[in-house]
Amino acid sequence: MLVKKSRILVLVTALLLIASLALTAYGAGKRPSSQNSNEPTSKFGGTLKIGTMTDPDTLNVLVSNSITTSWILDLIYPSLLTFNEKGEKVGYLAKEWKTSPDGRSVTYKLRDDMKWDDGKPVTSADVKYTAEVTLKETIGYNASLLKDAVSIDTPDATTVTFNLKKPSAVFATTVGYWLKVVPAHIWSTVGENKKFTNDQPVGAGPFKLTRYEKGQYWELEPQGKTWMAPDKKPYVDKIQFRVYPDMNTMILALKKGDIDAIANPIPPASVADLKATPGIKIGRTASLGYGHLTFNFQRPNAKALANKAVRQAIAQAVNKEAIKNIVLRGNSLDIPTPVSPVLGGCYNPNVKDYAFNLEAARKQLEKAGYKDQGGVRVGPNGKLEFTLIYDQGFDPMAKAVKMIADDLAKIGVKIDLQGMERNTYLARAKALDFDIYAGKWGVMDEPADYLGLLFLSDNWQKGGINYSGINDPKLDAMIKEAQGAMDSKTMKKKLFALQEYLHDQIPVITLWVETYNLAMSDKWAGWKIFPSDLRGFVDPQSLVGVYRVKR
Known about the structure:
- By secondary structure, the protein is α+β, with helices and mostly antiparallel strands.
- The protein contains 18 helices and 23 strands.
């Protein structure tokens, strides 16, 4: 008998925040009309228009690692698991799952009522194909998540078992959540899947992509019946993602009624204005990821970043408190290491962050042999001059990196800020073409697994997201021990030790865990908001139930 398991990841405070998602503010001091007076005679019909600031970087769901792309492809392609509004893992394509007592096999029992857009049933063969081709071609970060799978069994159309070469307590929920399943009967005929453009996606989600014009819009329609929708079918006739050049233009479009919602989180500085705008609702949710600065250890012209003392000095010159108050307007939680306080029992509260102290940072650099020469320090590995890339459309980071660069200049570290359009920025990050990479992760929910993706040496340029290029045998061993821990007490102990070591080695500087503000029109109802900007209200579980409000 398969037993359904879910893992509650969200700290009590974050759960309370999520639970209070009464979508606030129908204009200053205004109260919404009663639900009954606004209830339409039929909830079906209409085009829901959602603003976004960039196109998908690809329609290849196996390759993409972009939040914007996920908003669209998550509506088209199913994963085995998803999570609910509390951050708990729940079934999607899989209705039940279990890990064997020895941790060496994971079995999913699939739904039998899901079909691809061309009418063929979704089966265990599709799951098997997706996983095997991901491993064979080393496609994306999922290749790293799947690398311990030595074989995959499909005894029938609705059962798939992954056999593992070592015990894992988190394979079931991590792979279950991140692996998007593709139709084997199509993808097996296209040659190298890694290079497949997938211009006409065939999915099995509640929506299908019907037309698009890059730089303008991406339009989806209901696939048909779906168990996910309240009335077995999405209410909308169409969902149209409209592309805007920047947040200010998109906010103006929402105010004018050109769009009905904004997928991107609203900059904290714009929230008060939108709350005071009649007809606009604001929802709030916690992030399951975090903002960060990642150092490139393997950059030939930035060898100084491989020196721990230099990284620690830079950490002491980053004024996180000022960023929190000025840029995020208090809408964030502190995060001293890559394990977020939102993750409750996984988080080590004994690790204290580097205090902002410019004088201590200068002394650290002096001790490391870096002397001030005309405002820029020079030492054993040359000048402390680094490029820092960031997404110019992500307003909080664009503001934060300017503050960071100004403070680093005060300790003799010169930063060349390179802001760019998001898809260009993502391409540079994936190509590891940076000295320092300022970014944010959307969902980091299983620390033992995602710390492996971020820091295991064999994930450097091999499908993981080890963008730092750190190659530390001790860190490798500690991560692998945590991944193999089969009881929560041992897991916690290993994760606490990892956080202490990462704090000392500091391959990344963690900046903040943001509280997101999301804006939408009150002409539509039925929204659900999920943790993280990766899901927000754009989650398929939300959009299947959104409907027009009668006026």
